[in-house]
Write a structure and sequence with these properties.
Layout (H helix, E strand, L loop, with lengths): L25 E12 L2 H8 L8 H14 L1 H4 L8 E11 L4 E12 L4 H19 L7 E11 L6 E2 L5
Amino acid sequence: MSTSKLTHQDEDGRIRMVDVGDKPVTTRRAVARAELHMSKSAFEAIRDGQGPKGDALQTAELAGIMAAKRTSDLIPLCHPLPLTKVKMTIEPINDQSAFEIRSEVRTDGKTGVEMEALTAASIAALTLYDMTKAIDKSMRVEGLCLVEKSGGQSGDYHLEAKA
């Protein structure tokens, strides 16, 4: 279902929170990803658990989970949702001196969890940056995107692979 109307504006163009009261409760799931690219020395320090602030990977995964739970406090018109699952994974991309950060978020609710998944991935990436910036201030967060989502009125979505 594609629409050109912005759902967070009323007919007069005023900002509003979408009314989901009449929508059915369904299982909603979203997966997002981001990459953090860095110098080889920073990559090796994080990968080997030798960062200047301790185990950056565990801390970043926890930060991502916490961020998903607080998305409605960070993004102005997001509904607060009772999340049933938040899973974070951070894996090395050895040939690029980078880490792939993935979040999976689920709820049984009336609105989707895309923003929670995106927030989780981005905050996990920023936490890795913060914990490693003493080694490399030129790190780059790249490719933040929604990979897939399921449930709800608009149906399923899967990011198409680049050719």
